[in-house]
Amino acid sequence: MKKIHFSYYKHLKDPATKFIIYFILIGVGYAYLYPLLYMITTSFMSVEDLVNPTVNWIPTKLTLENFSKAWKVLDATKSLLNSVYMSSIPALFQTLVTALIAYGLSRFEFPLKRFWIFLMLATFLIPSQVTLVTKYMLFSRLNLTGKPFVSFLPALTGQGIRSAIFILLYYNFFNMLPKTFDEAAELDGANSFQIFYKIVFPLSIPAIVTTFIFSLVWYWNETLLTGLLLGNNIKTIPIALRDFVARYAVMFPTADGSAANRINEGIRMSATLITILPLLITYLILQRQFVESLERTGITGE
Q: Which long-range contacts (CB under 8 A, 24 or more apart) does 278-282 make?
Protein backbone atom coordinates (compact mmCIF):
# COMPACT_ATOMS: atom_id res chain seq x y z
CA MET A 1 0.00 0.00 0.00
CA LYS A 2 2.83 2.38 0.85
CA LYS A 3 4.51 1.78 -2.51
CA ILE A 4 1.27 2.41 -4.38
CA HIS A 5 0.64 5.52 -2.32
CA PHE A 6 4.14 6.86 -3.02
CA SER A 7 3.97 6.09 -6.73
CA TYR A 8 0.60 7.81 -6.94
CA TYR A 9 1.99 11.08 -5.59
CA LYS A 10 5.12 10.69 -7.68
CA HIS A 11 2.91 10.36 -10.75
CA LEU A 12 1.09 13.58 -9.83
CA LYS A 13 4.40 15.46 -9.75
CA ASP A 14 5.09 14.50 -13.35
CA PRO A 15 5.13 17.69 -15.52
CA ALA A 16 2.86 16.21 -18.20
CA THR A 17 0.28 15.15 -15.59
CA LYS A 18 0.37 18.55 -13.91
CA PHE A 19 -0.07 20.26 -17.28
CA ILE A 20 -3.15 18.12 -18.09
CA ILE A 21 -4.68 18.75 -14.64
CA TYR A 22 -4.15 22.51 -14.80
CA PHE A 23 -5.40 22.63 -18.39
CA ILE A 24 -8.63 20.89 -17.38
CA LEU A 25 -9.07 23.11 -14.30
CA ILE A 26 -8.48 26.31 -16.29
CA GLY A 27 -10.88 25.16 -19.01
CA VAL A 28 -13.63 24.31 -16.53
CA GLY A 29 -13.00 27.51 -14.57
CA TYR A 30 -13.20 29.59 -17.75
CA ALA A 31 -16.51 27.97 -18.74
CA TYR A 32 -18.01 28.87 -15.37
CA LEU A 33 -16.42 32.28 -14.84
CA TYR A 34 -16.76 33.70 -18.36
CA PRO A 35 -20.53 34.42 -18.14
CA LEU A 36 -20.11 36.05 -14.72
CA LEU A 37 -17.16 38.22 -15.78
CA TYR A 38 -18.96 39.21 -18.99
CA MET A 39 -22.04 40.17 -16.98
CA ILE A 40 -20.04 42.32 -14.54
CA THR A 41 -18.04 44.20 -17.16
CA THR A 42 -21.02 44.76 -19.48
CA SER A 43 -23.21 46.08 -16.68
CA PHE A 44 -20.76 48.97 -16.07
CA MET A 45 -20.52 49.97 -19.76
CA SER A 46 -22.16 53.06 -21.18
CA VAL A 47 -24.09 53.08 -24.44
CA GLU A 48 -21.04 54.45 -26.24
CA ASP A 49 -18.89 51.52 -25.05
CA LEU A 50 -21.54 48.97 -25.99
CA VAL A 51 -21.66 50.15 -29.62
CA ASN A 52 -17.89 50.62 -29.84
CA PRO A 53 -16.36 47.45 -31.38
CA THR A 54 -12.93 48.27 -29.92
CA VAL A 55 -14.24 48.00 -26.34
CA ASN A 56 -14.49 44.35 -25.32
CA TRP A 57 -13.83 43.84 -21.60
CA ILE A 58 -12.67 47.02 -19.90
CA PRO A 59 -15.07 50.00 -20.15
CA THR A 60 -13.55 53.36 -21.06
CA LYS A 61 -15.72 54.94 -18.36
CA LEU A 62 -17.53 53.22 -15.50
CA THR A 63 -21.19 54.14 -15.24
CA LEU A 64 -23.86 53.32 -12.66
CA GLU A 65 -26.74 54.51 -14.84
CA ASN A 66 -27.54 50.96 -15.88
CA PHE A 67 -27.89 49.88 -12.25
CA SER A 68 -30.00 52.92 -11.44
CA LYS A 69 -32.53 52.13 -14.18
CA ALA A 70 -32.50 48.42 -13.47
CA TRP A 71 -33.09 49.05 -9.74
CA LYS A 72 -36.14 51.19 -10.49
CA VAL A 73 -37.63 48.74 -13.00
CA LEU A 74 -37.12 45.77 -10.68
CA ASP A 75 -38.46 47.76 -7.72
CA ALA A 76 -35.48 46.09 -6.08
CA THR A 77 -35.93 47.51 -2.59
CA LYS A 78 -39.26 45.73 -2.21
CA SER A 79 -38.65 42.69 -4.39
CA LEU A 80 -35.31 41.89 -2.71
CA LEU A 81 -36.94 41.92 0.71
CA ASN A 82 -39.72 39.68 -0.61
CA SER A 83 -37.15 37.27 -2.04
CA VAL A 84 -35.19 37.11 1.21
CA TYR A 85 -38.40 36.52 3.14
CA MET A 86 -39.84 33.94 0.74
CA SER A 87 -36.61 31.97 0.36
CA SER A 88 -34.73 32.08 3.67
CA ILE A 89 -37.66 31.01 5.89
CA PRO A 90 -38.70 27.96 3.78
CA ALA A 91 -35.01 27.05 3.39
CA LEU A 92 -34.57 27.14 7.17
CA PHE A 93 -37.72 25.06 7.72
CA GLN A 94 -36.64 22.56 5.08
CA THR A 95 -33.16 22.24 6.59
CA LEU A 96 -34.57 21.36 10.01
CA VAL A 97 -37.53 19.19 8.98
CA THR A 98 -35.70 17.05 6.43
CA ALA A 99 -33.00 16.35 9.04
CA LEU A 100 -35.66 15.16 11.50
CA ILE A 101 -37.29 12.92 8.87
CA ALA A 102 -33.94 11.44 7.84
CA TYR A 103 -33.04 10.78 11.48
CA GLY A 104 -36.23 8.76 11.92
CA LEU A 105 -35.51 6.76 8.77
CA SER A 106 -31.92 6.16 9.81
CA ARG A 107 -32.36 5.22 13.46
CA PHE A 108 -35.75 3.50 13.72
CA GLU A 109 -37.21 0.33 12.25
CA PHE A 110 -40.90 0.28 11.36
CA PRO A 111 -43.18 -1.66 8.97
CA LEU A 112 -42.75 -0.98 5.23
CA LYS A 113 -39.71 1.22 5.82
CA ARG A 114 -38.24 0.57 2.37
CA PHE A 115 -41.62 1.27 0.77
CA TRP A 116 -41.85 4.69 2.44
CA ILE A 117 -38.30 5.51 1.33
CA PHE A 118 -39.30 4.55 -2.21
CA LEU A 119 -42.33 6.87 -2.05
CA MET A 120 -40.13 9.65 -0.77
CA LEU A 121 -37.77 9.25 -3.74
CA ALA A 122 -40.75 9.08 -6.10
CA THR A 123 -41.69 12.64 -5.09
CA PHE A 124 -38.40 13.72 -6.63
CA LEU A 125 -38.61 11.54 -9.74
CA ILE A 126 -42.07 12.85 -10.67
CA PRO A 127 -41.73 16.21 -12.52
CA SER A 128 -43.08 19.12 -10.50
CA GLN A 129 -45.10 20.35 -13.51
CA VAL A 130 -47.28 17.24 -13.25
CA THR A 131 -48.56 18.23 -9.80
CA LEU A 132 -48.96 21.98 -10.40
CA VAL A 133 -52.72 21.85 -10.99
CA THR A 134 -53.43 19.60 -8.00
CA LYS A 135 -51.24 21.78 -5.75
CA TYR A 136 -53.08 24.90 -6.81
CA MET A 137 -56.45 23.23 -6.24
CA LEU A 138 -55.39 22.01 -2.79
CA PHE A 139 -54.05 25.35 -1.58
CA SER A 140 -56.99 27.17 -3.12
CA ARG A 141 -59.43 25.05 -1.11
CA LEU A 142 -57.36 25.75 2.00
CA ASN A 143 -57.60 29.47 1.17
CA LEU A 144 -53.80 29.83 1.20
CA THR A 145 -53.15 31.10 -2.33
CA GLY A 146 -51.62 34.56 -2.40
CA LYS A 147 -50.28 34.17 1.16
CA PRO A 148 -46.67 33.48 2.26
CA PHE A 149 -47.75 30.37 4.21
CA VAL A 150 -48.47 28.62 0.91
CA SER A 151 -44.69 28.35 0.52
CA PHE A 152 -43.93 27.68 4.19
CA LEU A 153 -46.36 24.79 4.68
CA PRO A 154 -44.73 22.31 2.23
CA ALA A 155 -41.32 23.03 3.76
CA LEU A 156 -42.72 22.39 7.25
CA THR A 157 -44.13 19.01 6.19
CA GLY A 158 -41.04 17.79 4.32
CA GLN A 159 -42.55 18.46 0.89
CA GLY A 160 -40.60 21.56 -0.07
CA ILE A 161 -38.65 22.06 -3.28
CA ARG A 162 -36.58 18.86 -3.84
CA SER A 163 -36.91 17.82 -0.20
CA ALA A 164 -36.29 14.18 -1.13
CA ILE A 165 -32.67 15.00 -2.07
CA PHE A 166 -32.02 16.56 1.32
CA ILE A 167 -33.67 13.69 3.20
CA LEU A 168 -31.44 11.25 1.32
CA LEU A 169 -28.39 13.44 2.02
CA TYR A 170 -29.11 13.49 5.76
CA TYR A 171 -30.02 9.79 5.73
CA ASN A 172 -26.64 8.79 4.30
CA PHE A 173 -24.83 11.19 6.63
CA PHE A 174 -26.61 9.88 9.76
CA ASN A 175 -25.80 6.30 8.74
CA MET A 176 -22.11 7.27 8.84
CA LEU A 177 -22.35 8.46 12.46
CA PRO A 178 -21.52 5.75 15.04
CA LYS A 179 -24.60 4.48 16.86
CA THR A 180 -22.50 4.22 20.02
CA PHE A 181 -23.21 7.94 20.48
CA ASP A 182 -26.93 7.15 20.70
CA GLU A 183 -26.38 4.24 23.04
CA ALA A 184 -24.19 6.29 25.39
CA ALA A 185 -26.78 9.07 25.48
CA GLU A 186 -29.56 6.56 26.21
CA LEU A 187 -27.57 5.27 29.18
CA ASP A 188 -27.47 8.85 30.48
CA GLY A 189 -31.27 9.01 30.24
CA ALA A 190 -31.67 10.99 26.99
CA ASN A 191 -34.68 10.28 24.80
CA SER A 192 -34.61 10.03 21.00
CA PHE A 193 -35.41 13.69 20.39
CA GLN A 194 -32.72 14.85 22.84
CA ILE A 195 -30.19 12.61 21.10
CA PHE A 196 -31.16 14.18 17.79
CA TYR A 197 -30.90 17.87 18.65
CA LYS A 198 -28.07 17.64 21.22
CA ILE A 199 -25.77 15.08 19.57
CA VAL A 200 -26.63 14.07 16.00
CA PHE A 201 -27.78 17.42 14.61
CA PRO A 202 -24.76 19.44 15.86
CA LEU A 203 -22.45 16.84 14.29
CA SER A 204 -24.18 17.28 10.92
CA ILE A 205 -22.93 20.79 10.14
CA PRO A 206 -21.62 19.88 6.64
CA ALA A 207 -25.01 18.40 5.66
CA ILE A 208 -26.85 21.33 7.29
CA VAL A 209 -24.88 23.99 5.40
CA THR A 210 -25.16 22.10 2.11
CA THR A 211 -28.91 21.68 2.53
CA PHE A 212 -29.45 25.32 3.44
CA ILE A 213 -27.39 26.63 0.50
CA PHE A 214 -29.22 24.55 -2.11
CA SER A 215 -32.62 25.17 -0.52
CA LEU A 216 -32.00 28.91 -0.51
CA VAL A 217 -30.89 28.92 -4.16
CA TRP A 218 -33.84 26.81 -5.35
CA TYR A 219 -36.42 28.82 -3.42
CA TRP A 220 -34.82 32.08 -4.59
CA ASN A 221 -34.89 31.08 -8.26
CA GLU A 222 -38.36 29.50 -8.20
CA THR A 223 -40.73 31.46 -10.46
CA LEU A 224 -43.24 28.95 -11.86
CA LEU A 225 -44.73 27.67 -8.60
CA THR A 226 -44.30 30.99 -6.80
CA GLY A 227 -45.98 32.92 -9.59
CA LEU A 228 -48.86 30.42 -9.69
CA LEU A 229 -49.56 30.28 -5.95
CA LEU A 230 -48.74 33.87 -4.96
CA GLY A 231 -49.82 35.72 -8.10
CA ASN A 232 -49.08 39.44 -7.93
CA ASN A 233 -49.56 39.69 -4.16
CA ILE A 234 -45.89 39.04 -3.39
CA LYS A 235 -43.44 39.67 -6.23
CA THR A 236 -39.93 38.30 -5.77
CA ILE A 237 -36.95 39.64 -7.69
CA PRO A 238 -36.67 36.67 -10.11
CA ILE A 239 -40.31 37.26 -11.07
CA ALA A 240 -39.55 40.97 -11.49
CA LEU A 241 -36.62 40.00 -13.72
CA ARG A 242 -38.94 37.80 -15.77
CA ASP A 243 -41.15 40.83 -16.46
CA PHE A 244 -38.21 43.22 -16.80
CA VAL A 245 -38.47 44.02 -20.52
CA ALA A 246 -42.20 44.77 -20.40
CA ARG A 247 -41.89 46.97 -17.30
CA TYR A 248 -38.90 48.82 -18.76
CA ALA A 249 -40.86 49.69 -21.90
CA VAL A 250 -43.60 51.21 -19.73
CA MET A 251 -41.32 53.11 -17.33
CA PHE A 252 -38.80 54.36 -19.93
CA PRO A 253 -40.64 54.83 -23.24
CA THR A 254 -38.59 55.87 -26.25
CA ALA A 255 -39.54 59.19 -27.79
CA ASP A 256 -39.48 59.66 -31.56
CA GLY A 257 -37.34 56.56 -32.04
CA SER A 258 -34.59 57.97 -29.86
CA ALA A 259 -32.14 55.46 -28.39
CA ALA A 260 -31.71 57.42 -25.16
CA ASN A 261 -34.09 55.25 -23.15
CA ARG A 262 -33.94 52.14 -25.29
CA ILE A 263 -33.11 48.98 -23.37
CA ASN A 264 -29.62 47.67 -24.04
CA GLU A 265 -27.41 44.80 -23.00
CA GLY A 266 -25.80 46.77 -20.18
CA ILE A 267 -29.16 47.36 -18.49
CA ARG A 268 -30.13 43.71 -18.89
CA MET A 269 -26.85 42.55 -17.36
CA SER A 270 -27.24 45.03 -14.49
CA ALA A 271 -30.69 43.66 -13.67
CA THR A 272 -29.39 40.10 -13.77
CA LEU A 273 -26.43 40.97 -11.55
CA ILE A 274 -28.72 42.62 -8.98
CA THR A 275 -30.82 39.45 -8.95
CA ILE A 276 -27.98 36.98 -8.33
CA LEU A 277 -25.68 39.15 -6.18
CA PRO A 278 -27.32 38.20 -2.83
CA LEU A 279 -26.90 34.52 -3.69
CA LEU A 280 -23.25 35.00 -4.59
CA ILE A 281 -22.57 36.79 -1.31
CA THR A 282 -24.41 34.12 0.70
CA TYR A 283 -22.57 31.33 -1.06
CA LEU A 284 -19.14 32.90 -0.52
CA ILE A 285 -19.87 33.27 3.21
CA LEU A 286 -21.26 29.78 3.73
CA GLN A 287 -18.71 28.09 1.49
CA ARG A 288 -15.90 28.96 3.88
CA GLN A 289 -17.94 27.74 6.83
CA PHE A 290 -18.73 24.54 4.93
CA VAL A 291 -15.07 23.79 4.19
CA GLU A 292 -14.06 24.50 7.79
CA SER A 293 -16.83 22.25 9.10
CA LEU A 294 -15.64 19.41 6.88
CA GLU A 295 -12.13 19.76 8.33
CA ARG A 296 -13.39 19.83 11.94
CA THR A 297 -15.87 16.97 11.67
CA GLY A 298 -13.69 13.93 11.12
CA ILE A 299 -16.03 11.08 12.12
CA THR A 300 -15.89 7.54 10.74
CA GLY A 301 -18.70 5.04 10.85
CA GLU A 302 -18.63 1.58 12.31
A: 278/80, 278/83, 278/84, 278/220, 279/216, 279/217, 279/220, 282/213, 282/216
